[in-house]
Amino acid sequence: MHRLKILGWGLIVSAIVTGSLTVAVMRVVSLNQPAPPTQTQEDFSVLRSHLQAKNWQAADAETRRILDPWIHQQGDFLSPPAPTNIPPTVLQSLDRLWVEASNGQFGFSVQQRIWAEVRSQYPTDSAAAVKAFGDRVGWTRTQNQPDPTFIAYDWLIETELNSSPEAPVGHFPWVGVDWQRISAMMSAQSCGSCTIDAMYVQGERFNQYIPTLFDWVGTALSESEPISR
């Protein structure tokens, strides 16, 4: 009996120690998780180069590359986008680069002013406000523009954006998902819902993302400006 008691206490101590080790391991794993991305002067050098060259298409793609780790964490493009994860200083820096390079034609602050105007026209109808905003900045398809993808419907795809000097005010940076990613989604094998997923990314995602994004842009740009780089 005495030996059984000792054995019992040994098992309990072992469980406690093992549990402690498990917790310790979990903490180490947690600490080793990738940290949220940070932006430095070097991180914006590629974007700055594209903007200086007036290569709006390349600058737009680079802007998405910078922002996607916050908006679509772990590369999940099917979950609701999370623009509020973007640090205000990052939005401020990106906006300043776009506005300066385009002489006020493009940038988040330009888009935010347009969004505020259309939102005031449709205060209780978010979908109507989003559609009106898309029309203003040239992201939506006109009646004379056929849909080459059969999934895009109202919204232009990346390759249809207007990178000429005649692009509408606020046309860039675009807030959609690059066509290469959507095309890969549609062509995936053994995926019964891939077409539906692609239709969501190229359609309903705009209705979810635009109101949240520009509410956050308004908040972020109202904070103190970062140090000039």
Give a written overview of the molecule:
The chain has 229 residues and is mainly alpha-helical. It has one domain (44-223). Helices cover 57% and strands 0% of the residues. It has 9 helices and no strands. The N and C termini lie far apart (76 Å). The model is unreliable at 1-36 (pLDDT under 50). One of its GO terms (molecular function) is tetrapyrrole binding. It comes from Desertifilum tharense IPPAS B-1220. Residues 39-176 form the GUN4-like domain.
Summarize the structure.
With 229 residues, this protein is mainly alpha-helical.
Features:
disordered N terminus; mainly alpha
Layout: helices, strands, pairs:
Blueprint: H1 2-31, H2 45-52, H3 56-71, H4 88-102, H5 108-121, H6 126-137, H7 179-187, H8 194-201, H9 204-222
Topology as a string of helices (H) and strands (E): HHHHHHHHH
Mean pLDDT, to the nearest integer, reads: 81
What structural class results from the helix and strand content? Answer: mainly alpha
Low-confidence runs (pLDDT<50, min 5 residues)?
1-36
Proportion of residues in β-strands? under 5%
Q: State the shape.
A: globular
* H/I helix tally: 9
Radius of gyration: 24 Å
**Number of separate strands:** 0
N/C terminus separation? 76 Å
**Largest beta sheet, briefly?**
none
Residue share in helix: 55-70%
Assembly context of the chains: single chain
| Total domain modules | 1
